[in-house]
Amino acid sequence: MSRISSGCKVFDALTDGGLATGTITQVFGEKALGKSILSLQCAFAAASDGSSAVILDTEQSYQNYLLPYWHSRMNSKFGKEIPVLQASLTREPSGAKKKSGASRSQLVTGLSETLTGMGVRFTPNQLGAAADALSPELRFDLPECGEPSVILVQVPEILDLLALHGVKGRITVSEGGRVEMRLEQTPVYHSLLRDAVIKTKAKLLVYDSISAPLKAYFSGTADLPARSSSLAMMLMHAQRLCIDFDLAVLGTSHVSIDPINGWNRHPYGGVILGHEAKFSYELTKPSAKRNDEGVAVNPEASEGATRAIWIQRHPAMADYARFGYLTIDEGGMK
């Protein structure tokens, strides 16, 4: 098991030298604490060390928000001009040969505007089914990657995300309002994502975030079976890629909070995500307490710290046994 440095001294100390290859590491926490900044920094760190990184941007925050501010700053931090390349996902009719098309979200938007203009009533489920029927085949166009780079893929749609992992399915809604995910074929290993790892020679795969598309499509408690099965198929595929290509996977996740016991916090994704992610870390505010006996790896940095990161689970340590203080400045997370 090798390690990929994050470029953050504290996080590297808590991860025993960096993100472990061959397995999945998760970072979870509340909104606006810096999970995406840490993810982007890890990707730039990997590229600066000679290996490409693929980011699956499910929240569509990188291209319009993160990169315009952080790209040049990350280049300065690592002392290199690191290319950020955009990959594209489009859906096309079966058998299409032209490298053109619209993403599923673009197709849904176009259909919605057209039908609304004609005064036609429709449900989101009907709109999604029409989009899938018109363009069932997912095309993943990767840019040429001649040097270690950060490859960004915007993938907000759960069906597109599953298709990247070799899972072809469709979403239906029962008469009782339960969202269900039905497989249309047995999941395959020779997936578009596997091809991307091979073509780009990536050593780091980032999901930012794992939870966003699941929360968007499977929002109710009755939808738990569909959410759980979708997550399980994705993570099982990712774990196999980890092993076969000595890949490190970093997934960010939102946090679930018990409304009665506020101290009871855990990553959104439940037991399935907890089982697949061998290392888990919670990003918090510096004043947050998770274990009164937790030992800080850098107690001297407590004054002026704006974040803290805790070991939520580690194979060789007790839960929340260690943590570190962090700050975010113009050079990223340190």
What this model shows, in words?
The protein is of the alpha/beta class and 334 residues long. The protein has one domain: 3-Layer(aba) Sandwich (Rossmann fold). The strands form 5 sheets. The chain has an 11-stranded mixed beta sheet with strand order 6-5-7-4-10-11-3-14-16-17-15, sandwiched between helices. A two-stranded antiparallel ribbon has the order 1-2. The chain is globular, with a radius of gyration of 20 Å. The mean pLDDT is 87.
List keywords for this structure.
334 residues; alpha/beta; eleven-stranded mixed sheet; two-stranded antiparallel sheet; 34% helix; globular
- Principal-axis shape equals globular
**Known CATH architecture:** 3-Layer(aba) Sandwich
Major sheet summary line: 11 strands, mixed
What distance lies between the first and last C-alpha atoms, to the nearest angstrom? 24 Å
> Could you name the CATH topology?
Rossmann fold
Helix percentage range: 25-40%
CATH class bucket: Alpha Beta
CA-based gyration radius: 20 Å
Backbone structural class: alpha/beta
The number of helical segments is 10
Rounded mean pLDDT is 87
In terms of DSSP E residues, the strand content is: 25-35%
Tell me the total number of β-strands: 19
With strands numbered from the N-terminus, the spatial order across the biggest sheet is 6-5-7-4-10-11-3-14-16-17-15
Q: Unreliable segments (pLDDT under 50, ≥5 consecutive)?
A: none
